[in-house]
């Protein structure tokens, strides 16, 4: 009887022709300004919570409630986790939600005699209430334990990232700076999620040979890399990006599948550009009369996105038709089915060529789903349901499951690579932002010097040393270089880089001269309070 059951299991198992690993990279730079009553850039976090992170959590919990045995991989970066668990930002986000609910309620009344918009106003009103219920009533204003619960169930694999999303290949002049980014991230992950991380999403997918040894030292089993990082590996991988390789230090590298990515990312072919989907750039914060919308703006009175949008993409012109959510959801279902069909055919073709099951790795920025592509969370919901119920070609899998089932991998070293324009770090090192690196390298050198000289200090000096480490980590965030390159909010990115470096330099000088200004230290500890358990000795050489 047992042998018959084994045979049946093998027959069911071998119906599959490939694995599918869906990976979402959830990240925002650490933006927290207690020195202001409200701060415009904090809205980046509030919008992403409302439109991406909570909707995705609702999708995952809905699948679990219906006992759908799905698999997902998702990074929650240390800076994002820190904002999710910060009491000040939790309080401000709740205030933000209540203001949006109040605006949606007013919109229900205002559109009473506008039938093409009235049902949409009601939709936003009910959706915002569901988000508030999830955040406040069911999770006590902290959704991190809910994600931890999904990981404990085995349906969601959560990876870490660099502590502040520092671009590691451009930090490798000082190996302790790289180690500090990884070790601080791993310790923060363990504190919030209950165990050490098994995998890492390298910031900006940036890899250079040698980084794998740092990952191995911190207990990381696998990482993700851009397609050409695998294709140009040495020796050349036999199966390309359709099987992970393992570096000489023993860390597995999973490469991005271009075909999967193109159907979602491509500006020409990607699903989010479909004319039936909601138009991101038409928001009532800009469309309605200023006096009406003014109570829902920031103190400076600048118009902002409110998240309430009434039009669909319609076409390439400026004329837009009203958004039809039913039509958009039908299109999301159609696109989920199309995506699954294409992955099935891709897996069948590769299975025949490879003689083994390929793994198709599809990584995306999480904020695409919900924030930029309003229907994105529902597309993921439908895709996961269809893969589980409507086919037997693809099997959903997480990287640790794949590695446990396929322990024998080709040894090869990925090449230096990143994602972004041209794929070799140009976004983070070019004319608009190259000035930052000489300062970051010097600060990292000085931090190592401090750690070596003052390694056993306590009291005020230790507080200053730990704060210097925080300021360095915050200055190293790749987000500031990215913003300088893209040309949006450049003034803010430059100011953040300079402020953290100036604070670090002042602390460095005060520690050396034994004249620490406790008032200044207390002020910046309250302002830049990321990683409360940080240990500056990570920088010791």
List the helices and strands and how they pair.
Blueprint: H1 2-13, E1 18-26, H2 43-65, E2 72-76, H3 78-84, H4 87-110, H5 115-138, H6 144-153, E3 156-159, H7 175-193, E4 199-200, H8 211-217, E5 222-225, H9 227-231, E6 245-246, E7 252-255, H10 258-265, H11 284-287, H12 290-293, H13 325-354, E8 359-365, H14 376-389, E9 394-396, H15 399-405, E10 410-411, H16 436-453, H17 459-475, H18 478-486, H19 490-512, H20 518-527
Parallel strand pairs: 1-2, 1-8, 1-9, 2-3, 4-5, 5-7, 6-10
Antiparallel strand pairs: 6-7
Helix pairs in contact: 2-5, 2-14, 4-5, 13-14, 16-17, 16-19, 17-19, 17-20, 18-19
Give a verbal description of the structure.
By secondary structure, this protein is of the alpha/beta class. The chain has a domain at 429-539: immunoglobulin/albumin-binding domain-like, CATH 1.20.1430.10. It is built from 20 helices and 10 strands. The protein has helices spanning 2-13, 43-65, 78-84, 87-110, 115-138, 144-153, 175-193, 211-217, 227-231, 258-265, 284-287, 290-293, 325-354, 376-389, 399-405, 436-453, 459-475, 478-486, 490-512, 518-527; strands at 18-26, 72-76, 156-159, 199-200, 222-225, 245-246, 252-255, 359-365, 394-396, 410-411. Helix 2 (43-65) crosses helix 5 and helix 16 (436-453) packs parallel to helix 19 (490-512). The radius of gyration is 24 Å and the shape is globular. The model is unreliable at 1-11 (pLDDT under 50).
